[in-house]
Amino acid sequence: MPSLAASGLLALVTFSAALDPTLDTAWEDWKRLHRKEYLEGEAASRRATWEDNWRMIEQHNWETSQGKHTYRLGMNHFGDLTNEEFNQKMSCLLPRGARPATGNVSVFHGSATQKTPKRVDWREKGYVTPVKDQVGSGFGAAVGALEGLYFKKTGELISLSEQNLVDCAWDLGNRGCQGGWPERALQYVQERDGLSTEDGYPYEGEEGLCRYQPENGLAKCTSVKKVKEGDEKALERAVATVGPVTVAIDARSSALQFYKSGIFSSTWASDALNHAVLAVGYVKNNRSRAYWIIKNSWSSYWGDKGYLYLKKGSNELGVADEACYPE
User: Fold this and answer.
1) In this structure, are residues 278 and 140 in contact, taking their beta carbons and an 8 Å threshold?
2) pTM for this model (two decimals)
3) Which residue ranges run through the membrane (predicted)?
4) So where are the chain's domains?
5) Environment class of 178 (CB within 10 Å of its CB; exposed 0-12, middle 13-18, buried 19+)
6) What SS3 class is residue 242?
7) CA-to-CA distance for 92 and 18, rounded, in angstroms?
8) Which SS3 state, helix, strand or coil, does residue 121 take?
9) Best label site of 6, 36, 48, 266, fewest CB within 10 Å?
10) Other beta carbons within 10 Å of 67
11) Number of Cα atoms under 13 Å in the Cβ half of residue 173
12) In whole angstroms, how far apart are CA 253 and each of 24, 97, 136, 296?
């Protein structure tokens, strides 16, 4: 039986032999851009994963040029992760069965006869802070909805603290970096009478002791509204009349991992919602070009400067299944 050292050397040689030398410059440029450094012996396996993803992206974009897709993919800072590793890193919502029963949360339906604009984009009205890089937090969407509510009431756009929720919202069923649910995060803000600013309680990317001080609580909410489950029309009415709304999606596909531009649609199942994002608007000029404007929290390197344009009208990725907002 070969030694561990010999096995590691064999794996390294195997990876090296399979690597494409024409991608050397692209690989080095990508590492430099995203400040990637690896332990000794790890670079070859990460390079091999990166090349697999590169080829998948190239194939998809060629198919897009042939009219087979309505969106393009692009290499980003997740390029050295397999889809399995990506999902382990990004899944930030607890399974539905893991949630405590919903407390005092009412349901928004809206009037079926209500006419909504053909286009809504709350970014243009000043409701939306810049895209953040807070991978795995799970609370960015709830915070984004609060930021929009605070702007609506005060006319002042302030970045609020996800870390405050990561550290402090456990008694409402959330689990810090292990995951949570936006409605429970918003209920925490309601019960604690406020949330700290990002400057006052900066993001750290890991759980810590709760340091929230009520006297520093800035953004407040008096109640939480859930949008009728699975009803995109109700979600449209909420986004049109309320402002940014938190939504949950099934973000497990490799296509979403490398989404770059265009209107995303997928046959990927939506039975496992694992990521919370913020619906900041929509466009419904015609049925084939209708889409949601979705703010993500995976940095501006992902998607269209941090945004996803998601096909509207067929509940893609379960976008209308777990929507809520603060009042």
Assistant:
1) yes
2) 0.89
3) none
4) 4-69, 87-326
5) middle
6) coil
7) 34
8) strand
9) 6
10) 7
11) 19
12) 27, 22, 16, 15
Rounded CA Rg of the chain: 21
- For 220, the token pair is 């407040």
Taking alpha carbons only, the member of 270, 285, 281 closest to residue 307 is 281
pLDDT at 11: 45
Q: Which regions of the chain does DSSP assign to beta strands (E)?
A: 71-73, 105-108, 119-121, 224-227, 245-249, 259-264, 275-283, 291-295, 307-311, 324-326
65 phi and psi angles, rounded to 5 deg: -65, -20
Over the stretch 161-215, which tens digit does the pLDDT of each residue have? 888 888 887 666 555 445 567 888 888 888 877 889 999 888 887 777 888 887 7
Give the percent of the chain with pLDDT over 70.
84
- Tokens found for residue 9: 């050397």
State phi, psi for 171 to the nearest 5 degrees: -70, -5
Give the count of beta carbons closer than 10 Å to the beta carbon of residue 52.
Answer: 14
